[in-house]
Structure formats: C-alpha cells, structure tokens
Amino acid sequence: MKKNVLISGGSGFVGKQLTSLLIExxxxxxILSRTKKQNTTDIxxxxxxxTRFIIDEEAVLNANFIIHLAGENIAEKRWTTxxxxxxxxxxxxxxxxxxxxxxxxxxxxxxxISASGIGIYGAINGSEICTESEPLINDFxxxxxxxxxxxxxxxxxxxxxxxxxxxxLVLGKNEGFLKVISxxxxxxxxxxxxxxxxxxxxxxxxxxxxxxxxAIEDIxxxxxxxxxxxxxxxxxxxxxxxxxxxxxxxxxxxxxxxxIQTILxxxxxxxxxxxxVSSDKIEKTGFKFQFVVLEKALKDCLL
Length: 303
Known about the structure:
Blueprint: E1 4-8, H1 13-24, E2 28-33, E3 43-49, E4 54-55, H2 57-61, E5 65-68, H3 81-104, E6 111-117, E7 126-130, H4 140-156, E8 162-167, E9 169-171, H5 176-186, E10 202-204, H6 205-217, E11 223-227, H7 235-245, H8 257-264, H9 269-272, E12 275-277, H10 280-283, H11 294-302
Parallel strand pairs: 1-2, 1-5, 2-3, 5-6, 6-8, 7-12, 8-11, 9-10
Antiparallel strand pairs: 3-4
Helix pairs in contact: 1-6, 3-4, 7-11
C-alpha cells in the first residue's frame, strides 16, 4: 500500500509542484483545504478552518507523513498590526491544530515536516554566513519564524521525527516573486533596490521540493535546515542577471530606499535587508542541488 503524505497549503505555489513530485515518487497525497474540492484519482481533499480551529481528523489519522506549508502570504499586503497577527497566527495556530489531533489520538507519524524561513535570522544586512545554530533575531520575521518552529517542536515532543525547512527566495515558473518582477525586467525597466548590497539567498522550486522529498525518505534528517544557495547573490547581482536573461544590460539607477519604504511600509525590510545563509547542513545529508547557478535557474523559470 502507498504511504500517504498529508499537505497543508497544498494548493499554493510550492504545494502544487510538491504534490506532483510526491505522486511521481509513488506516494498518495492528501491536501487540507479551506474550500470543498472534489477528490481525484491521485489526491484526496479534507476540510479545515484554522480561524475556527476545525479540521477533519481523518486526514491526520490516515497520514504517514505531514508536510506543513500553510500560512498567510507575508508579501501579499502591507504589514498592519492586524495583518501581522494574521501572518503569525496562520502559522502557529495551524500547527497547534495538527498537534492537538495527533496528541488526542495518540497518532504517530513517520515524520512531520514544516516550512520555515531564513527570516528567522532577522531582517538585517551583513556578510556573515548564517548556519542553523546562528543566534536568532527578534524582529517581526524572526519572531514569526521562531514561534512557527516552536509550534513544530511541540509535535517533536510527541516522539515524532520533525524537520524544519528554512526557505530562501523561491524561484519558479509563472509563480511567486518572479511572477511579480519579471514583467518589469522584461520591458527593460528593472533596477536594483536600495543599496543593492543586501543578500538574496535563493532556491529553485525543483530543489526545494526535492529537499522535502529527501526529508520524508531520509530518517536521519531532523531539526532545522537552510534551503537556499550560498553563492553571495546580492540584489544588484540578481537584478543584473535577470536583465541579462532578457538580453540587455540594466540601465536604470537604483530605486531609493525611501521610495520603497513609502510604498511598502515596514514590509520593505523584505527587499531592503538580507543575509547569507549556509547550505552545508543539507548538503552533508547527501543532497545535491540541481540549480546552483542563478542565470541557469532564471532561464529555466522564464525562457
């Protein structure tokens, strides 16, 4: 019988591609959804509502693995006080909801794998390469990721192997960050942001999904892992490379920080700040990135 992987956030950017990969790898897939959806040959859908703390417990009880991707998009709206609460609670409360079902039913999993983010190292600039043991920063992104991981650690306390994937900027076809900025660069209007010196640790979605599959199948994996390429890409390098993919040299001056701050408010930290992260820990598991050259990754996504 096929082992079942339950995915929260399965209809999102990463979730859709991950679902396809898991099915190809021989797993059955279940997805937690806020809206009713018709089951298919390969996918079973179960209802949950985080705001009402409701979940179809059968989804959890049938699972061998859970991959927890669910959470409000941090870049979708300005960070008002209300929005910050929504971002945090969507991650922490959803994890607690799963935890309560596992605990109540004394349900054991082969593994619980949770998304996290490199934002846990703080929205600051610096050339220091952050490992998973780096002291954490208590700004909004840092606190959000820390509380998200702490909620996952509750599941680990149930003697369930738990893995936390600290993800960098995800590059994919017609989705995510590139979907927003590629039209600007395509029409030769792209430029670097602020100083342009902020680091942008990135990962191709193919590699990110492969890391999740690795976390399922490698029983030695547990704890936190950075999921990003450590190649020293700054915002200027990223912008120039993206322009080059479209066949031209970037010609516009950097967009001043105050303009970005005016448009985005506190959320501007996401694009004006950035640190390098180490990929040594995940690579020591034997994982090999398919995309390690930014230009190749961008061409695969855009051309």
